[in-house]
Amino acid sequence: MLDEVFAPVYSPSTGIALDLLGLTESNPEAAPSSFLEIGCGSGVISVQAALSNCTTVAMDINRNAVENTRMNAERHGVTDRLTVLHSDLFDALAPEARFDRIFWSSNYVLAPPDYSYGSVHERAYMDAGYRTHRRYLEQAVNHLTGTGSALLHFCERGDAAELARIAEQCGRELRVLRRRTVLEGSDLIEHSLLEVVPAANPPARDDSRERGSGQLARV
Fold first, then answer.
1. Domain limits at 201?
2. pLDDT tens, position by position, 66-125
């Protein structure tokens, strides 16, 4: 594990994400043909997707995470079907890039809008003003195939009401696909796998930032 990379051994979130995605099971029919992971960290999820014979792209804003994922891809012999890119969300993708499944296990801790990150590692679990969440909700659906799905792993330690408000402003709906409750320390914490879809009735462009909190599926 390289310095400044999110370490799965200190948090259950990576194992929960694998479970939510169905990547802990030996079921090749459930795996998509193409998979994009945003915020790949050490590469556990992307490597597992590649081991399920998905053509996989893994991206992270942290250069050490990119290198760590490359190392793990080599270790597990999946470099022929796993591409790793340094990217701030979707910036490194070609505009025409499309995937059957896009996944982000989000940095769900809401930091103040003016928060200054002390290290790149903090970006793995904190999002100032939920600006990264807003960009993901806006942009993820633009890189899907016709039958693709954009997924978000969120946790009740995050601000579900603020996420719902941003989704409404972006003209998106959040559909709960699966939930898991796990013991973290002395607390039972609920994790959710959400699908991001265009809203049936998106808000008007000129007043979208003035609307109140949306009541979407409970996150």
1. 29-210
2. 999 999 999 999 999 999 999 999 999 999 999 999 999 999 999 999 999 999 999 999
Report if residue 197 sits inside a domain: yes
SS3 per residue for 152-198: EEEECCCCHHHHHHHHHHCCEEEEEEEEEEEEECCEEEEEEEEEEEE
The token pair that represents 20 in the structure block:
């939510």
* Non-local CB neighbours of 195 within 8 Å, separated by 6+ positions: 149, 150, 151, 152, 174, 175, 177
| Nearest CA among 167, 212, 118, 151 for reference residue 18 | 151
Residue 198, φ and ψ in degrees, nearest 5? -60, 140
Distance CA(198)–CA(82), nearest Å, equals 29
Q: Give me the number of domains the chain comprises.
A: 1
Tell me if 179 is assigned to some domain. Answer: yes
Asked if residue 23 is part of any domain, the answer here is no
| Residue 217 forms part of a structural domain | no
pLDDT band at 218; cut points 50, 70, 90: very low
Find the helix or strand (DSSP H, E) in which 145 lies: strand 144-155
User: What CATH number corresponds to the domain at position 126?
Assistant: 3.40.50.150
